[in-house]
Amino acid sequence: MSEKTIFKRIIDKEIPAQIVYEDDLCMAFKDVHPQAPVHILLIPKKEIASTDQLTEADTPLLGHLYGVLRQLVKEFNLQDGYRVVTNCGQNGGQTVYHLHFHLLGGRPLLWPPG
Ligand code: AMP
């Protein structure tokens, strides 16, 4: 069996995280290396390695995740603007192969990204 990702270990509560939201389908916690005053990672509990692994069956899950993102935007007062990022694959800069959305805000964010 392949090794658990660090995010699966957070889901299983084997390692600590600063959890800011959790329900049956997903979990959100603070990024350990924040790139902005607010930097939260939102992950499905289902083990999906990346956007490349998504199927049509995951459509309701993605809708749910975006609903949670909007709740987090309110909770963390990001009404002035924010960014939702999903890195995919080597060139996309993905380092953890468990699907996740970065929610970044609290400062003006530059574009294009590096
Ligand atoms: P990515 O490079 O898009 O795959 O993003 C992975 C993110 O996970 C990075 O921003 C890391 O700082 C973050 N990260 C790695 N390990 C942990 C952890 N144990 N708790 C919280 N965030 C983490």
Give the topology.
Layout: H1 6-11, E1 19-22, E2 26-30, E3 38-44, H2 59-75, E4 82-85, H3 89-92, E5 101-105
Antiparallel strand pairs: 1-2, 2-3, 3-5, 4-5
The structure holds adenosine monophosphate (AMP).
The site of adenosine monophosphate (AMP) has 12 residues, from loops.
What does this entry look like structurally?
This protein is an alpha+beta fold and 114 residues long. It has one domain (6-105): HIT family, subunit A (2-Layer Sandwich). It contains three helices and five strands, in the order H-E-E-E-H-E-H-E. The chain has a five-stranded antiparallel beta sheet, with helices on one face. Bound molecules: adenosine monophosphate (AMP). Adenosine monophosphate (AMP) binds at residues 6, 17, 29, 31-33, 41, 87, 93-96.
Q: Output the structural class.
A: alpha+beta
Q: How many domain units?
A: 1
CATH class: Alpha Beta
Element order: H for helix, E for strand = HEEEHEHE
**Overall mean pLDDT:** 97
- Which ions and ligands are bound to the chains? adenosine monophosphate
Give a quick account of the main beta sheet: strands, pairing sense, barrel closure. 5 strands, antiparallel
Question: Stretches where pLDDT falls below 50 for ≥5 residues?
Answer: none
Find the count of extended strands (DSSP E, 2+ residues). Answer: 5
Report the total helices: 3
> Which strand order spans the largest sheet, edge to edge or round the barrel?
1-2-3-5-4
What separation lies between the terminal Cα atoms? 35 Å
- Reported by name, the CATH topology is HIT family, subunit A
How much helix, percentage-wise, in residues?
A: 10-25%
Cα-atom radius of gyration: 14 Å
Q: What amount of the residues lies in strands? A: 15-25%
